[in-house]
Amino acid sequence: MTLRGRRRIGRGLPHTRKCPSGTTWGRTTCQLAMASAPKRPKVWWEEPRAGVGPGRSLSLTTPLPPQAAAGSSARGNGAADPVSRFLAWCGRAGVQLSPKVRLSREGVVAGYGMVAAAELQPGEVLCTVPRSALLSQHTSSIQALLREGQESLQSQSGWVPLLLALLHEYTASNSHWRPYFSLWQDFRSLDHPMFWPEEERRRLLQGTGIPEAVEKDLANIHLEYSSIIMPFMKSHPNVFDPRRHTLELYKQLVAFVMAYSFQEPLEEEDEDEKGPNPPMMVPVADILNHVANHNANLEYSPQCLRMVTTQPISKGQEIFNTYGQMANWQLLHMYGFAEPYPSNTNDTADIQMVTVRTAALRRARSEAQQRLVLEQWNFLCQLEMVGEEGAFVLGWDEVLTEEELSVTLKVLCMSEEEFKEYKEQDGWEDDSEEEENLTLSNEALSRLKPPCKQLLYDSVLLTLESYRSDLKAEQDLLHNKETYEKLSQREQQALHVRYGQKRILHQLLELVH
Question: PANTHER family per the record (predicted)?
Fold first, then answer.
């Protein structure tokens, strides 16, 4: 039989998640459809950005004055409030705001946001930020120093040069960026789970995957600071002081970059040849909050960046950017907030790949069958369909890791004879027979063969056991307004994450029951 019309199962390790900046995130799972349009980088070992919900707030102390609508600045350098200083800086830096928008604390979902002061049509420019106003490793006052030491600053995250620039600019009394940083006089408003006490993180987020991701984040932050940042600072004592540029400040700046930085996408022809562009801070654009159904997007050109409307916006309506197609666990992990059900149409739930293996082993009725399951698992590993730290990702309408899950279910449900024949073919299958089976929409899930349904059903039940509470308990909390309002901010955000994941998992139970 020739290879024509056949498919080799396996397309590279799907289970090490990569953020748009190309760095490995703390939580390993396979998430598809993340690389749309220009967006902020999801940091690093797991993911960055603090966005819209109650979890995000900017440390701005007063509403912007009316002149903010037109982008004009407060007069004089002695303006007391940070917003006036920031607006004056924007004027000097050439940042332009449309007269049809205003920045405000009122009428927005959290912290500061951008609100339409007049009706807007699709394609209108809301703000223009010249590249000279961006804060990055290439525009910092220590850019020459960073360029000179670039070889020693390479890291897993790829963020070290920007973070060093931020360490310097944030603490330098004469920094050009001081008015920008005055919006964040401290970083206490950043409430990522990495700042929660470990006990609270475990209690509220067990089963969501976030605690494990945070542990990896913190380990990587400590390693990066001790092995790269500290040696660089010690070799430049005239610029850095470890007593001032501490690990705690470094961790806060990591969260700041997670929450507010942007990353310029590569051109299509460069995606396979070049490494990802480094993250950068984009004043004004970083004030916009996020929802899945956004109405504005950031566009890039050689001279400047523009925030542009994507749909009609009524006067008084908040203007939202998008951080990408992100599940609630990603939003909370990287940005400190989650969208309430059912707002986040991009929400997902995970089934750990090893959980499916455990379910298959549990249904094996003899040692011989258990050995067969382990042999099948090892073969799936060779095909790069599964991994010890991987996860199958479930969306509301389909399985996002459809090929991986489809092949895994099929192989783990094979008899010894079927598996022997499959191995002899080395994972090659007829496209005509398998193409439809690899598409796991909700309808396709309901049509799986009974053994595959049962294995998937058992795997979902095992996954649900990893949470501290059941779906009904979460529903009771959400539906009791008085009880819900007594919850802390963190408890509310964690509840939204858990509830969305459990809804998706219970939906899957119904489909394959």
Answer: N-LYSINE METHYLTRANSFERASE SETD6, UNCHARACTERIZED PUTATIVE METHYLTRANSFERASE
